[in-house]
Amino acid sequence: MNKIEVNALGQQCPIPVVMTTKALKEMKEAGIVAVHVDNEVAVQNVLRLAQSQNLEAKSEKQGEKHYVISISATGAPIAKEEESISCAPDMRGDTVVVISADRMGEGNDELGRVLIKSFIYAVSQLAVLPKAMIFYNGGATLTVEGSESLEDLKNMEAQGVQIMTCGTCLDYYKLKDKLAVGSISNMYSIVETMNGAGRILRP
User: Fold this and answer.
1) What Rg, from alpha-carbon coordinates, does the chain have?
2) Is the Cβ–Cβ distance between 156 and 60 less than 8 Å?
3) In the chain, how many domains are there?
4) Model pTM?
5) How far is 5 from 135, CA to CA, in rounded Å?
6) How far is CA 41 from CA 110, 149, 158, 159, in A?
7) pLDDT tens over the chain, length 203 residues
8) 59 and 116 share a domain?
9) Range of the domain at 182
């Protein structure tokens, strides 16, 4: 499979979008365009470019200031090029999502686990992403290895959403070394983040 690497590290919008558009135009057959950027707004705008072209794309945070957006190119000509080379402001709002269990609602536990997975996916698809997501108690199990929500959480983290998991909770469940997304947090930081939220969303 063809693959084009786009090094847009250190570049501000619209440069990463322009470079990505050029790479997509160079793809004459199906392949992957991997775009490297160092800021969340660039991630958001490159993902928006892919969406405008009806192309599958996912983002991954590889370092403190290193994000990679992988776009599945079809080799078809770029459409609506005048719309693709554009910038949008940071699409994160001031909402903080707080998740305290590995399931949603009361009743059937299996259904509850399906619902919490759907809830996290729905959050990842919001036009305005939350500023942060906090996981504590049973919710801490959703950010560790084996969680079915990791892909959605990593995608949001790569767009600048802060993923915070209670360290005391990870210790209690003996999962501290299994954390797979975001950072380990403490109660002071959790309270501070919630206190600074414009609104708090709970499933």
Assistant:
1) 18
2) no
3) 2
4) 0.67
5) 35
6) 37, 23, 10, 7
7) 689 999 999 998 889 999 999 999 888 888 999 999 998 888 888 988 888 888 899 888 888 889 999 999 887 777 655 445 566 666 667 899 999 999 999 999 999 999 999 999 999 988 889 999 999 999 999 999 999 999 999 888 888 789 999 999 999 999 999 999 999 999 999 999 999 999 999 99
8) no
9) 95-201
